Amino acid sequence: MSSRRSRQSSAGVSRISDDQIIELVSKLRQLLPEIRVRRSDKVSASKVLQETCNYIRNLHREVDDLSERLSLLSVIDADSAEAAIIRSLIM
């Protein structure tokens, strides 16, 4: 079977083609700040996938950190100076 054709699993279900994989990896490269900064065309697909995983982990950490910060806001008096500063930063 040609590597350019869709691969078939033993159950006969169509799978993603090599061309589709190449296209998806290319799209991921464009989304990753770490790889975009390098501007190198010679980044392997495995490196793109590793960087994607790292980037997603970092985003999860940032979300967790921001969630924790927001939960701390619930204990601040809404009319306090701190609350006014926070509102100005959010807007």
From TrEMBL:
- Alphabetical keyword list: Growth regulation, Nucleus, Transcription, Transcription regulation
Q: From the UniProt record, which GO molecular function terms apply?
A: protein dimerization activity
Q: Which GO terms describe its cellular component?
A: nucleus
For this chain's UniProt record, which GO biological process terms are given? regulation of DNA-templated transcription; regulation of growth
Q: What Pfam families does the database record attribute to this sequence?
A: bHLH_ILI
Q: What is its main location?
A: nucleus
The UniProt entry, under InterPro entries, shows:
bHLH_dom, HLH_DNA-bd_sf, PRE
Q: BHLH domain: from which residue to which, for each copy?
A: 5-59
Quote the subcellular location field of this record.
Nucleus
Which PROSITE patterns does the entry link to? BHLH (PS50888)
**What's the protein called, per UniProt?**
Transcription factor PRE5
Instruction: Name the species this protein comes from.
Output: Hibiscus syriacus
